[in-house]
Amino acid sequence: MSTALSAARRSAAGSAALLGLLCFGLPVYAVAAGGNERLYVSDESGGNVVAVDPAAGKVIATIAVGRRPRGIAVSADGSRLYVALSGSPNGGPNVDESKLPPPDRRFDGIGVVDLQSHKLINTYPSNADPETFAISHDGKTLYASNEDTGMLSAIDLVGGTIRAAAKVGSEPEGVAVSQDDRIAYTACETSNRVDAVDTRSMKVLASIPTLPRPRAVLLSTRSHTGYVTDEFGASITVFNTDDYKVIKTISLGDPKLVRPMGLVASADGRLLYVTTGRAGTLLEIDPDSGRILRTMTAIGKRPWGVALSRDGRKAYTANGPGGDISVVDLASGRVENRITVGGSPWGIVSAAAAAQP
Question: Which residue among 14, 34, 211, 295 has the highest number of C-beta atoms inside a 10 angstrom radius?
Fold first, then answer.
C-alpha cells in the first residue's frame, strides 16, 4: 500500500479510537490526544495502576490497587477506573508452576479507582482469578474472565455484587460484549475457542473454533463480525456474530516469532492494530482483505496491551518486561517516546484529562 493511501485511510479512520479490547480483551476508551489525555497502565508485578501524561511524557501518579492488576477499563463517564486483581501466583514464561505458592483468594476482585482522587475506593467480588473483562454498553454490568476456574462472571456495577456466572472453556481471557448487551464473548486459551454466552441466562450458546491460544476478542462496529488474536497460531480468527461461524483466518507470520496479543480498531473499524509480543512489533491490518498493511518494528520489549489516541494518530503499547510504554506515531510508524512506568506493564487505557483534579 502506498504511503499516501495508507495516510488517507488512517485519516478516514478518524477522529476517535474505537471502544474495543485490550490487549487481551482490555476495553480501550480513547480520548483527546495531547494535553487532554491521561493513560492508565496496570502494573502486574508492582500491584499498581500508573497514571501517565503522554504529552508531557511522564508519570503523574502511582496508585496501589492490590495483587496482579491486569485487565483495566474506564467507566463511560470517565469518573472511575476498574482493574482486575488476582490472588493467583504469576506463572509467566519459563516458570515451573508446580513450584508456585497456592493462590490466596482474598486478593481476587475488581478494584475500583476514583479518577478525581487517584485512590482505590472499593474492591468488588469477582470469583476466582479475574484476568480481563468488558463492561456492558449500558454501564451496569462487568463481565470478567476467571482464568483459573474456567468461568465468566457477571458483576453488577451498581451494587458491586456477582449477579451470575457461566461455565466456559479452560483459561478464559479476552472478553467482548455485543452492542445490544445480549451476548458476551470470551476467548478460552487452552480450549482453542471463543465461547458466546447469553448474558440473560449465562449459558453458552455456541463455541467458535480458533487456532491455538486465543487471546483478545474485538467486535466490529460496522459489520456482524468478530476478531480474535491467536497467539500460538500467529493469526487472527474472523467470525460471524450471527451464526458463530468462522469466516476466515488471517495469517500474521511465523508462529515461532509472531505472537499476536492485544487488539484495537480504528474509529471506522477499517483498520486493526495488533501487538505481537516477543516479535516486538505493531501490525496494521486491513481486516476486509486480510492483508498486513504495515509492520511497525522496534516497538518495545514484548508489547502487550494497546490503545489508540482519539484522533487516531498515535498508538500506545504496554511493554511488560521493558517496564515502559511506547508512544507510536502512526503516520511514520515509529516510536516517538518511551515512558518508564516500572514493574510489568500489562494493560493500557486512556481517559480524558478533564476527569482529573
Answer: 211
